[in-house]
Write a structure and sequence with these properties.
It contains 15 helices and 16 strands. It is of the alpha/beta class. The strands form five sheets. A seven-stranded mixed beta sheet has the order 2-10-9-6-5-3-4, sandwiched between helices.
């Protein structure tokens, strides 16, 4: 354990952790069961196209989320594209800039213009008070994002959509096993889209799912996932290849069976971070609504530089040098990425909360691969930095960059 600021790697000390600690290290669930299932897939010679593991995964997920339909796909980005096509979105769609760029790209890819909306600075979710001012005659929908698994203001968004005749998709990439007003997310809006990417706490290597309570939307999504085929040699509509493979479905099913344990590991780490970091001036550990179900897969720190004396970027550089590979999700915001920056260079002016949040947020390592001892070590490093802001900032301003990112 480091006790003096000069022990930090930026002062020439050895990194605080012996090996790199990642955000998003994949979880495997019950390894023995997974091995058996992978063998079963190989032995069966049925690898894709509506196979038995896909069906089991879809049924199990729909049951866990309490939703009528679950259409598993190869990843959430394709899932968002399929959802937008099924709903006939076109023209402009209102979407937060504070999200992974896939949310905006899925729209842009279809020739739809994402119109970026600000977020609530406290919750990081789309700000319903700004949505209506962005609606034009070209607007066809709203894509809300349940960032960190904390739901969007679903009721407010739904009311605006109903009033203005808009369709609603929720990007629920982070939100497996999270609830809104006592209901599991999955059945809100017209369609919700989940991600099971390797870095998500419930993963299928790569994967995603559309969920909905609307029979016809589900039917169309299934068709579109498989090139529009309704039977051998019969194509009813335009489609894509959005299929989830059997290997991915077997992994998804195995992850799903470990869901409670995964959430429990995340929750324990989250509580430990809070225990050790609550009260550090200028630092906030993003608070989850404990009256609802949450998956705690992200531990998000917010650094308020004027109170902390250290910027988020300084803390990020210092942690990287200590082998703590924290991530600045979702810096710098979609509106500052191409092609959106060039298309709307003045977007920052209407996104003040997004600008502040993207400059403050740092995701730190968690999940079953991160032991409680490691969490405490990371917290001790952060406390050491925060208690010695002057020396640290002076060192960084004179020092060469310690990391490339
Ligand atoms: N909407 C939202 C709100 C999203 O957050 C995402 C995805 C999507 C939509 C789209 O869903 P998908 O189409 O992907 O299903 C990662 C993920 O690639 C991305 O899926 C995720 N969001 C985003 C939040 O995080 P990066 O750029 O951080 O990935 P990468 O490769 O840097 O990995 C993160 C960390 O995990 C690294 O420290 C390395 C470690 N890692 C990663 C992989 C893939 C491993 O240890 N093993 C691995 O296999 O985007």
């Amino acid at each position: 354990m480091k006790t003096s600021v000069t022990d930090l790697a930026i002062f020439g000390g050895t990194p605080g952790l012996p090996e790199k600690l990642h955000v998003g290290r994949p979880n495997i669930g019950d390894r023995r069961k997974l091995d058996e299932r992978l063998r079963e897939v190989l032995d069966s010679r049925w690898f894709s196209n509506d196979g038995p593991f896909l069906r089991r995964f879809e049924e199990a997920l729909a049951a866990a989320l309490g939703v009528r339909h679950c259409v598993a796909v190869c990843n959430a980005t394709i899932g968002l594209e399929i959802a937008a096509r099924v709903l006939g979105l076109r023209g402009e769609v209102i979407v937060p800039s504070f999200t992974f760029v896939a949310t905006a790209h899925a729209l842009q890819w279809l020739g739809i213009t994402p119109v970026f909306c600000d977020v609530n600075e406290r919750t990081h979710a789309i700000d319903p008070t700004q949505i209506e001012s962005l609606v034009t005659s070209r607007t066809s929908g709203i894509v809300g994002v349940h960032v960190w698994g904390e739901p969007c203001p679903v009721d407010e968004v739904g009311a605006i959509a109903a009033r203005r005749g808009l369709r609603v998709i929720y990007d629920a990439a982070h939100a497996v096993a999270c609830s809104y007003r006592g209901r599991m997310l999955g059945g809100e809006g017209d369609i919700e889209v989940f991600s099971f990417h390797a870095t998500k706490f419930l993963n299928s290597f790569e994967g995603g799912a559309l969920t909905t309570n609307h029979d016809e939307l589900a039917r169309q999504a299934r068709l579109m996932r498989n090139f529009g085929f309704t039977g051998y040699d019969q194509v009813e509509s335009v489609g894509t290849n959005g299929k989830m493979t059997e290997v991915c479905a077997a992994m998804g099913l195995t992850s799903l069976e470990s869901l409670d344990w995964l959430v429990e590991c995340n929750r324990a780490n989250y509580d430990l971070y809070r225990q050790h970091l609550d009260g550090v001036p200028g630092l906030r550990v993003y608070p989850y609504d404990r009256t609802e179900k949450r998956n705690f897969q992200y531990v998000v720190l917010e650094v308020e530089p004027t109170r902390a004396g250290v910027s988020r970027d300084d803390l990020h550089r210092i942690l990287q040098a200590e082998n703590v590979l924290a991530r600045r999700y979702f810096y710098p915001g979609c509106h500052r990425m191409e092609p959106y920056r060039s298309a709307d260079p003045k977007a920052s002016a209407r996104l003040p909360a997004t600008e502040r949040v993207t400059a403050r947020v740092l995701s730190v390592p968690t999940g079953p691969n991160v032991s409680p001892e490691r969490v405490v070590e990371v917290c001790e490093l952060i406390r050491l930095v925060m208690a010695n802001q002057t020396e640290v900032v002076a060192r960084l301003s004179g020092a060469r960059p310690v990391c490339a990112s």
